[in-house]
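sorry for the late reply, my laptop died twice this morning and i had to redo everyting from scratch. anyway the thing you sent over, i finally got around to it. pasting the sequence first so we're on the same page, its 228 residues, then the predicted structure underneath. double check i copied it right bc i was rushing
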Amino acid sequence: MSNSSENVLPVTQRTKIRRVPQRGQYERQVIYDILDEGLVCHIAFAVDNQPFVIPTAYGRVADRLYIHGSPASRMLRSLQNGIEVCVTVTLLDGLVLARSAFHHSMNYRSVVIFGTAITVENSEEKLVALHAFTEHVMSGRWAEVRPPSFLELQGTLVLSLPLDEASAKVRSDPPLDDEADYSLPVWAGVLPLQQKAAAPIPDPRLHSGITLPNYVHNYTRKYEREEQ
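ok and here's the structure:
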């Protein structure tokens, strides 16, 4: 099964959603939106038949996902050798409280990516990736801070993963109880969950007179902006 449209990723044996397939989505924009809202991914890989799952930050530029870190990192050293990886990002949107214990669930948006990461050798692409990391965490930050020095750039390992084999899975439904349970005198519904920023805490060594940037003061998560 495949779709050659440039807006929809091909469905492979690895990305095909088999359990509750109607929740599967393969549109590029759906996948990109979830990646852009998430902050941490989990990278699964194996070294010498030993499995590892490592959480890390990431950034996206067009159809590539970038991860970075120290060349001493076991994960990055392993990935640059061309091994297959599986990357996941999950956004938890709510707790689904059913009338029966069996049918409790969660509303979520998730992405699973398969592929082989490659090392970014070009300094210009490295800078693009580091810019993406910074802006992914805090939009507007890159223009204000000191850019990476030559030594910092040389001492940072950046890997690029193509977003060619990926799928999303989304649940956004109320509880799905057995028909007989709908008559039970038990409250049921969805408890929405949101990740919101609290009040900024200044660095104890911050010089006096430095004001809080507007992009920090007005920081909101994507779903908060959509609700405003």
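The helical segments are 28-37, 74-79, 123-137, 150-154, 214-217, 222-227.
thats about all i looked at so far, will dig more tmrw
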